[in-house]
Amino acid sequence: MASPEQRLPASRLGLVSWAMYDWANSAYAAVISTFVFSAYFVKGVAADPVRGTEMWGYAISIAGIFIAVLSPPLGAIADQAGRRKPWIFWFTVALALSTALLWFVKPDPAYAIMALVLVAVSNLTFEMATVFYNAMLPDLAGRDRIGRVSGWAWGFGYVGGLACLGLAFIGFVDAEVPWLGLDKAAAEHVRVTGPMVALWLSVFAVPLFLFTPDTARTAASWGGSVRSGLKTLAGTIRDYRRHRPIIWFLVARMFYTEGLNTLFTFGGIYAAGSFGMGFSELIMFGVAMNLMAGIGAALFAWFDDWFGPKRTIIGAVVMLTVLGGSLLVIESKTMFWVFGLPLGLFVGPAQSASRSLMAHMAPPMLRNEMFGLYALSGKVTAFMGPAVLAWATAAAGSQRAGMATILGFFVVGLVLLRNVPDVRR
């Protein structure tokens, strides 16, 4: 069997089909996690918004713990088994089923536990499928095009998520008469977003399984793959010095990604509290930010290949720090739009270039394992950003002081990136 470095990059059809999976699964992030179902749970299912926010946070945190624990060993096992698409397939099936079942979550606190279990399962399967999906990138793109393929797919994902969100709003959530004659009094026009996202995912994920090439299956049995994978992971941990550059990158990413995640989590709260934005304005701003992030990921994809993913990340995080700092000192809502929208341009490149840097750095025979550790680095400290922000807000009695802590995560990430090699094509 040819090594990953010897295989030729995928055809254009194979690459587009791979990117279609970004389009497919981003609907879950946009509709379920961010804009629609999370708000429905907090306001319509839970006993009260405060309790709902708390319960939702616990569910996502529990899912994050399972992601952190499972992703490295499963990635190591998959490296021994060879193929990645079967893992993506079964996690995608579980994601679609758990998301479709959200239809049965009625606007009643009695359904809160059911909702939280389904959300935790769907979040877990979403992230686990992404581990193996990301690990396909270097084999498909070839070393010369990793940045472009990663950036274009990431931008494609943002557009796909917004397209599904737009259909959900126009046809169901914000429609005076929802499609299919759904009963608004029973919240069917919101609950239907679960099956809608499941259908969207199921349809647009198909090209990946039909047209994108996979690595060959090895001769190892399932039991042998499990034993070899766990042994390899243990060896990687013991021999951490050999992988020190990757460890530096994962720790650096942990900090600047924590800044990004906290910005996404509390950005709407800050806009509402400090600038008086209403719900409709927040939705408009969120949609515009996501669109800008998609454009940024696509545009900076060329920069990634030409100048390297490390420089792309540094440039993006520097601009996030500068523009984020500007949002802390301005006073008017107009200026919030003026500085907030350009900030979105650098969110996408920071994320897509991180994926391409991991693709460049991961040893060919350990890519699933390394992308499992990559997923771990994005989850293991998910509590830290909100906790520090909450403490600073309470200590200073100011939202602005709390939001300023996000800049600290960006700066720490930038400092740690100095120890990461400048990997380029």
What does this structure look like?
The structure is a single chain. The chain has 425 residues and is mainly alpha-helical. It has one domain (12-417): MFS general substrate transporter like domains (Growth Hormone, Chain: A, Up-down Bundle). The chain contains 18 helices and no strands. Helix 4 (85-100) packs antiparallel against helix 5 and helix 14 (309-329) runs antiparallel to helix 15. The chain is globular and about 55 Å long. Mean pLDDT is 87; it is low at 1-6.
Described by its quaternary structure, the protein is single chain
Provide the number of structural domains. 1
- β content, as a range? under 5%
CATH topology name, in short, is: Growth Hormone, Chain: A
What is the CA-atom radius of gyration, in angstroms? 21 Å
Output the CATH class name: Mainly Alpha
State the major sheet: none
Question: Taking all residues together, what is the mean pLDDT?
Answer: 87
CATH architecture: Up-down Bundle
Which sequence of SSEs, written as H and E, runs from N to C?
HHHHHHHHHHHHHHHHHH
**Class inferred from helices and paired strands:** mainly alpha
Shape: globular
Topology, number of strands? 0
* Helix share, percent: over 70%
Poorly predicted runs: 1-6
Q: How would you name the CATH homologous superfamily?
A: MFS general substrate transporter like domains
Count of alpha and pi helical runs: 18
Separation, N- and C-terminal Cα atoms: 24 Å
